[in-house]
Specification:
The protein starts with a helix and ends in a 5-residue tail after the last helix. The relative contact order is 0.14. With 238 residues, it is α/β, with parallel strands linked by helices. The strands form 3 sheets. Strands 5-2-1-6-7-11-10 form a 7-stranded mixed β-sheet, sandwiched between helices. The chain is built from 8 helices and 11 strands. Strand 1, helix 2 and strand 2 form a beta-alpha-beta unit.
Length: 238
């Protein structure tokens, strides 16, 4: 029994982080910095193909370490967001990969509009979840309950709000996996001491909020249409 317990304790924590074209790299790299410091963590950056680097929405290239068919399963599944999420919501191989990973995963997680991708795969139906504030209502089209909080935990679903929430999400998950002391040690190691330069959205100048909405309205219309199509494809039962 002791040998079995020791073997279980020594088992790597297998973390799969999805990478895709036109993602927002900070959605992925912020949590990566925390996950990489978890004891026994083994992280795979997984893309549909690793033949070429994945280029994020701003042109930063990230090299995947594995492709879909090279991964058998994981303990933690993580999905970032970004403009490329739009195409991903209708990409059969990606949605099938996420569903396959979810069968074994202890934790199914996302940041920003990565939650819409999880929703398109049917993995948030009946769960409370969050997303970027501009896209938050779209979760309802995918059978989830939208919650306007920075990090939302519902059973084994951990979702983070907009881009900068990734570290908060990862530290919350680190606490769940390795305990509060370890999560606090990680926070100290990365000197996580947020000091926002500007007011939070609920206290920001309404003119600026309206301008952001206006600048993104056309793309949000496309996101909503994609979420409606994805929701229509989901089975009626959770």
């Amino acid at each position: 029994m002791a040998d079995a317990a020791a073997a279980a304790a020594a088992e790597p924590l297998r973390i799969v982080m999805l990478a895709f074209a036109r993602m927002t790299q900070l959605d992925l790299t912020g949590p990566f910095e925390v996950f990489a410091r978890l004891p026994a963590a083994k992280i795979e950056i997984v893309a549909k193909s690793r033949r070429n680097p994945v280029e994020d929405a701003a042109g930063l290239s990230i090299v995947a370490t594995a492709s879909y068919n090279e991964i058998a399963g994981c303990h933690v599944l993580f999905v970032p967001g970004g403009p490329g999420q739009l195409e991903l919501m209708e990409d059969g191989p990606t949605l099938d990969f996420l569903r396959r990973m979810a069968v074994e995963a202890r934790y199914i997680t996302s940041v920003c509009t990565g939650s819409l991708v999880l929703g398109a795969a049917g993995l948030l139906k009946g769960y409370r979840a969050t997303s970027h504030w501009l896209s938050l209502p779209q979760l309802a089209l995918l059978g989830a309950e939208p919650v306007e909080e920075r990090v939302v935990v519902d059973r084994n679903r951990f979702t983070g709000a907009g881009v900068s929430s990734g570290i908060d999400l990862a530290l919350r998950l680190a606490t769940e996996i390795a305990g509060e002391d370890e999560a606090r040690r990680i926070a100290l190691a990365i000197e996580y001491q947020p000091a926002p330069a500007f007011p939070s959205r609920d206290r920001e100048d309404a003119r600026l909020v309206a301008e952001v909405r206006a600048r993104t309205a056309a793309f949000q219309d496309k996101r909503e249409a994609a979420a409606r199509r994805a929701g229509a494809r989901l089975p009626s039962e959770p």
